[in-house]
Amino acid sequence: MSYWVRKLYRVYRMPMWPRRTCRQVTELVLRQEDQALPWHERVAVRLHMQICAACPRFVQQVKFMRQAMGRWRSYSEGDGA
Amino acid sequence: MWRGSVGRRCAFLTLPPVSASPSTTDFARQVETLRPQLMRFARTQLRNDAWAEDAVSDTLLAALEKPQSFGGQSQLKTWLVGILKHKVVDQLRRHTREATVLVGEDGEDLDEQIFLPDGHFRDMPQDWGSPESAFGQRQFFEVLEACMDHLPPAQGRVFMMREWLELETDEICKELQISSTNLWVMLHRARLRLRECLQLHWFGAAGTR
């Protein structure tokens, strides 16, 4: 899988394709919390993750927050607080 | 709806009028002890004490009118929170105009603080580690709640609608009569803010502990 991702990335790196910055990718990642992205955006995010060290961390943080909100709902509405 | 107006007229009463058979007064007392907790939920969601008061009064009134609909198979609090969510949506619907006004809110662009002009992160996002260790701690949820309360009001409202009322985004747009672009922007900012706040007040503090 990773092989094909890398291969795709080489195509994607050709100057005719617009490249996403971290700022744009984080926006897409946050939007993904509420809405399914179109396939080309998903590919762009996926490819960016291969070359970026910061964005995968950001994705982890977003995932953490999602889980935290889920736990908070059951914690606060149940016997807690 | 007549029930809404009755709820508001009764808002200043500590106990809504109920017939005085022993079981119902007992039920009423139990319900009444949960009022402060319901108020806290309503306030977090609505960001307005008067609206929160109305929503909670409506909830208690509805609960006392129909105690038989509480089957007893779930916890009383869970049942009441379920009713409260509906009443909160009613309040939001009633105050749509004021609920979405961004009074000079969020003039600063959070994106500018996080990213360089070329779109790279200014600071490397920190590794937050395993969620389980944080979720075991009561303080974590206190920090999380404080962070949610510190979101700017309009952002906080839409964020809570999404995360607590668990509404779909198109429902939120419909209830508040805002465009989806507007909603995306608000949710985006709310999430970035929450992240910053957790980083600063939980992970930042945990690093030095």
Please describe what this structure looks like:
The complex is a heterodimer of chains A (81) and B (209). With 81 residues, chain A is mainly α. Chain A has one domain (2-77). Chain A is 72% helix and 0% strand. Chain A has 4 helices and no strands. Chain B folds into 2 domains: 2-94, Rna Polymerase Sigma Factor, Chain: A, CATH 1.10.1740.10; 99-208, Orthogonal Bundle (Arc Repressor Mutant, subunit A). Helix content of chain B is 68%, strand content 0%. Chain B has 12 helices and no strands. The longest helix of chain B has 29 residues, at 180-208. Chain B is globular, with a radius of gyration of 20 Å. The A-B interface holds A 21-24, 27, 30-31, 33-35, 53-54, 57-58, 60-62, 64-65, 67-69, 71-73, 75-81 and B 37, 40-41, 75, 77-78, 81, 111, 114-115, 118-121, 124-128, 131, 134-135, 138, 140-141, 144-145, 162-164, 169, 184, 187-188, 191-192, 194-195, 198.
Lay out the secondary structure.
The complex is a heterodimer of chains A (81) and B (209).
Chain A: H1 2-12, H2 22-31, H3 39-51, H4 54-77
Chain B: H1 2-9, H2 22-33, H3 35-46, H4 49-65, H5 76-94, H6 96-99, H7 110-114, H8 131-135, H9 138-149, H10 153-163, H11 169-176, H12 180-208
Helix pairs in contact in B: 1-4, 3-4, 3-5, 4-5, 9-12, 10-12
The rounded Rg of chain A comes to 16 Å
For the largest beta-sheet of chain B, the strand count, sense and barrel status come to: none
The number of distinct β-strands of chain A equals 0
CATH-defined architecture of the largest domain in chain B: Orthogonal Bundle
Average pLDDT of chain B, rounded to a whole number, is 79
Q: What general form of chain B does the structure show?
A: globular
List low-pLDDT spans of chain A: none
- In percent, how helical is the residue content of chain A? over 70%
Q: Tally of extended strands of chain B?
A: 0
- How much helical structure, as a percent, in the residues of chain B? 55-70%
Structural class of chain A: mainly alpha
Distance between termini of chain B?
54 Å
Tell me the structural class of chain B: mainly alpha
Terminal CA distance of chain A reads 46 Å
CATH topology of the largest domain in chain B: Arc Repressor Mutant, subunit A
Could you tell me which chain pair has the largest interface and how many residues each side has? Answer: A-B, 32 and 39 residues
| Count of domains of chain B | 2
Q: Indicate the overall shape of chain A.
A: elongated
> What proportion of the residues of chain B form beta strands (DSSP E)?
under 5%
